[in-house]
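Handoff note, outgoing to incoming analyst
You'll be picking up this chain. Sequence as last confirmed:
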Amino acid sequence: MKGRLFLGIVAVSMLGGCASGGQTPGQSRASDNRIITLEQLTAARVATAYDAVERLRPLWLRESGARSLGTVTEIVVVAFGQYFGDVTSLRSIPTETVREMQYMSGPEATNAYPSLANGRHLESAIVVYPVTLAQ
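Most recent structure output, in case you need it:
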């Protein structure tokens, strides 16, 4: 169900405008271990976003084990600027619908997406950016 929802949202977003993320001159996104690029996704030849992360950035899937007063931290997935699910929800996202993925620490994710906290103690977030018509 989530896979179909994600595909539907991707289709709708392709009809809208597109935005290009800026890049600092001389900065290689492919060498940034906090980013998985479209080129890396294509070269990995895997079916789902989870498979891509598992192959290309396995550390993104690890929890540090640090707990604060017995609270459990979690890794969350953000898609279309909002909470999409826990890390297993990446299994429902086909790689052909993904333009880029980005790793954020818990504090970074909470600052970028304040609604993520919502009672959660974030370990980290994996942000999924969908493909658009003009890339």
